[in-house]
User: Fold this.
Amino acid sequence: MMAQPTASHFIAGAYAEDTAGDAIESVNPATGEVIARLHAATPAIIDQAVAAAKAAQPAWAAMKGVERGRILLRTAQVLRERNAELSRLETLDTGKAIQETLVADAASAADALEYFGGLAGAITGEHIDLGGDFVYTRREPLGVCAGIGAWNYPIQIAAWKSAPALACGNAFLFKPSELTPLTALKLAEAFAEAGLPAGLFNVVQGYGAVGAALATHPGIAKVSLTGSVPTGAKVLAGAAQDIKAVTMELGGKSPILVFDDADLESAIGGAMLGNFYSTGQICSNGTRVFVQRGLHDRFLDRLKARTEAIRLGDPLDPDTHLGPMVSMAQRDKVLGYIEAGKREGARLVTGGGVTELQGFENGAWIQPTVFADVTDDMTIAREEIFGPVMSVLAFDDEEEAVARANATPFGLAAGVFTADLARAHRVIARLEAGTTWINAYNLTPVEAPFGGVKQSGIGRENGHAAIEHYTHLKSVYVATGPVDSPY
Ligand code: NAD
Assistant:
């Protein structure tokens, strides 16, 4: 099943190609079939995209916010009309089950376009009265902004970055992950159809080297990365060369704390969503599930039963819960972590291996896996696995749980399940994380700021907060009398 795009890149409102770039093959991870062949951007393509963005940006910035917003709203409408087709393509490219992509990918991209489209006319500065003289501030765009995406939510990441950037009057350039290059091009088509002037949203394909070229390109004012911590460090170092603004959405090893008084089925549902959705490939996953001793055994019994009822299968079948991982390489990496868990003495509760599926013999399948008796020093409790592997750790009291939850260099997300709301707020306040939930997990509405602390990130996406990361504040001092100078 080929999903061949017209060409690899989208620049200045049209598809562009340079076959001198390294070959990229997009593989359907459920079958191992190549579904599209593309090329990485050459330096010439990158320069062309930056030049197109630079040329288009001033006129866009000079438009009224509501006019920019209207185009974003129209783009959202195009995505919603095409949700079925886009979800199918995202499923082929990522392997994620269609029941997920129908609600969480192009639909989430449309949410972002609607939210920031609506906000575009409300981006304002402030007036500061000085008793005669006064200062006003202007929220000005940064110029050309670049986004570098991960492979787990390709079109969502492209829209979460470009919608606020464009709403604020910037031009945008996006590099998808080399594993999932296709739907960003479809987003570019949707923008063009909605009337976005040429050059304001460009897509360049490529491996890490293209990302690195964007991070250091003198024509780019800001770079926003969704990726792993080691890549974040490299992009940050590149951006430091000319002091670019950055947003970093990086990895995590987030804790979920389940207290004895929690609603058992909700806590298990939250932990499963926080470990198995997207076949475990979510940065904010709560992969360290701390369960208080009084509930621990019942939690594990029900978790095992519910996990074993998860249906793996053809990702395009609407009844399938879980598709394969994004690639064989990622699956093998996760299997290595599962082996480490076994070797280091964790108790395998369920899963722990690959699955054979008829008709999908070459798919990157892996069983949803639960380990119990996990201790804080084990590899599976310390490192981000980025696959469907849950570690359950027992704890006795609140103080201990908070200390252990925080004993990690990551700080993306955290969740608390308890019926005691005073405790819920007290514990959430003490957890070192940027995005947190009480009696829920992994809900990420576009209205709420999303991002991490510690090594998990810098800056925030979504919510009003994103506006601050795609604008700078100019203060304008206005004198109303003669200059009072001693000279
Ligand atoms: P990755 O870091 O390998 O790659 C991310 C992107 O960076 C890709 O587009 C890649 O081509 C590019 N890249 C690689 N090397 C680069 C370099 N030296 N300079 C510039 N760009 C470079 O991550 P991945 O494997 O695609 O995604 C998984 C990781 O992303 C996990 O750690 C996950 O937690 C994280 N993630 C974070 C969020 C978030 O919002 N916080 C969301 C999704 C994924």
